[in-house]
C-alpha cells in the first residue's frame, strides 16, 4: 500500500475514534444534567464518527484481503487501540445514559 494512503487510513482511524470518544463524553455530561434527548443525539453523532472510523479500518482490511501487504507499525497499533477504546466507550456511555434516564423517570 502506498505510504500516503496507509497514513490517511491510520489517521482516519485515530481522528474518528477520538471524535467518537469526545461525543460520548459530552453525551454523558448532558445525561448527568438530565438532558437525555440531547445526550442521545450526541450518541448518534458518536455512532456517525464510529462509522467513519470503520471505513478507514475497512480500507486496510480490504487491502490485506486482496493480498497486498499492510505494514504493521506502532502507529497502526495505536490507531486500532483508539478504535477499540472508542467502541467500548460508546457502549458504556449508552448504558450510562439509559441509567440516568431511569433515575430521572423518563
UniProtKB/TrEMBL annotation:
This is PTS lactose/cellobiose transporter subunit IIA. The modification Phosphohistidine is found at residue 78. Coiled coil: none annotated. It comes from Lysinibacillus zambalensis. The lineage of its organism: Bacteria, Bacillati, Bacillota, Bacilli, Bacillales. Transmembrane segments: none annotated. It holds the Pfam family PTS_IIA. Keywords: Phosphotransferase system, Sugar transport, Transferase, Transport. It comes from the Bacteria. InterPro entries: PTS_IIA_lac/cel, PTS_IIA_lac/cel_sf.
Amino acid at each position: 500500500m502506498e505510504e500516503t494512503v496507509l497514513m490517511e487510513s491510520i489517521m482516519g482511524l485515530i481522528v474518528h475514534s477520538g471524535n467518537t470518544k469526545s461525543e460520548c463524553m459530552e453525551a454523558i455530561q448532558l445525561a448527568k444534567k438530565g438532558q437525555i434527548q440531547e445526550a442521545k443525539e450526541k450518541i448518534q453523532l458518536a455512532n456517525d464518527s464510529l462509522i467513519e472510523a470503520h471505513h478507514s479500518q475497512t480500507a486496510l482490511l480490504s487491502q490485506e484481503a486482496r493480498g497486498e501487504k499492510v505494514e504493521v507499525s506502532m502507529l497502526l497499533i495505536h490507531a486500532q487501540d483508539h478504535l477499540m477504546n472508542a467502541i467500548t466507550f460508546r457502549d458504556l456511555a449508552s448504558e450510562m445514559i439509559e441509567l440516568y434516564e431511569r433515575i430521572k423517570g423518563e
